[in-house]
Amino acid sequence: MTNIAKAVEESDNIAKNHPVNMTPQAIIKRQSILGMRVKNNYHHAVRNLIRAAGGRQAVSSGVSRSLGHSGISGVSSWVNMMETIRECGLEAWLTNKGRGSLNGKTCHDIVEIITNFINEDFVALDDTAAKEALESIMELLEKRLDGNPENFDAILHSVMSSDEIKNYIDHFFGIYIYSHLSQDFSEKIEKERGSEVMNQVMTEIKDLIIDDVSRGVHGRKAGQVNWNGEEGKQFIKDEFNRIIKIVTNNED
Fold first, then answer.
1. Whole-prediction pTM value?
2. Axis-axis angle for helices 164-193, 230-247 (nearest 10)
3. Phi, psi dihedral angles at 183 (to 5 degrees)
4. 5 with 205: CB under 8 angstroms?
């Protein structure tokens, strides 16, 4: 992570100051080298994180309580709730939960109600990462609603019955892993390099993780998975294992 901070800081200085002793071609080459250095060291940092938590098998199966357990539990809770709401409809679900009708509620209101039901039990360190990941995918869902809460049932049906649901799961695990890195290293980088460099480093890592996750080789189809059964649980664990392979550059 220190090497990432150094590379990000140098890259930012080059971009802002355009060194007079470097040709445009030399600047492009140096920025490319620094970019690869950041990417390689980010993979290395995630590998160390996974190893410290007991290895890929322990993490992806949810056995590790330090990293993995709350991630799998959190995304499973989200998927199960989305499936429940799809089956009964948002209006009926709100009424059943004592939250009144859909009338007068904004998309943000709906997202907050669902989020609060899922994350109310997240209290430990690993839960903090799961909570951040949950809030991130709920923000994606809110954007998908495009300001119209009446679209919720139709959009949810579209998400749950297609591979789009896997995109949400993948995004969840990407943010979940990023959050663990941030918790472990943000304070150290800030002390060594200052707040500006720390923010740049963590933003760079977050973007790299999300890019890697979104561009990874897709696994099995998700649209016909039974999310409330063993099939759904196994799909989530398999997908988490796939994501870990991607962000560790296919190493244990």
1. 0.92
2. 40
3. -60, -40
4. no
